[in-house]
Amino acid sequence: MEIKVELNNLRTAPRKVRQVADLVRGKKALQAQTILSFTVNRSAGNVLKLLNSAVASAKHDFKLDESNLYVSSIFVNEGPKLKRWHPMSRGRAYPIQKKTSHITLVLSELIPKI
């Protein structure tokens, strides 16, 4: 059984979120929650909320034990960019791209339930 959850349009650059995603890929769900709760990166809080949501869905909807779950895959894609301009002297303007991320997290069972 796989539980797939997504977080779209997170207002953080994908490069920064991928650093946090690499920490928990392949770990058990409880171990990943511990790692994320002690990580000081700002996007770790958002990934932790997403992981907690996935674990809650597995427990409530599918009656799965959380100690039997692990993060089988987590990946971060680029979302839409907010395009802004920064005014400079002499009438110039420089572009600013405010990047967003889409996070997809998949939980699977260590020992499949029949």
Automatic annotation (TrEMBL):
Gene3D superfamilies recorded: Ribosomal protein L22/L17
Swiss-Prot/TrEMBL GO biological process terms: translation
Keyword Methyltransferase: no
Keyword field: Ribonucleoprotein, Ribosomal protein, RNA-binding, rRNA-binding
A GO cellular component entry from the record: cytosolic large ribosomal subunit
Sample GO molecular function, one term: structural constituent of ribosome
NCBIfam families associated with the record: rplV_bact
Family statement drawn from the similarity comment of this UniProt entry: Belongs to the universal ribosomal protein uL22 family.
Known partners and oligomeric status: Part of the 50S ribosomal subunit.
Function: This protein binds specifically to 23S rRNA; its binding is stimulated by other ribosomal proteins, e.g., L4, L17, and L20. It is important during the early stages of 50S assembly. It makes multiple contacts with different domains of the 23S rRNA in the assembled 50S subunit and ribosome.
Name the UniProt record assigns to this protein: Large ribosomal subunit protein uL22
Upper taxonomic lineage: Bacteria, Candidatus Staskawicziibacteriota
Gene this chain is encoded by: rplV
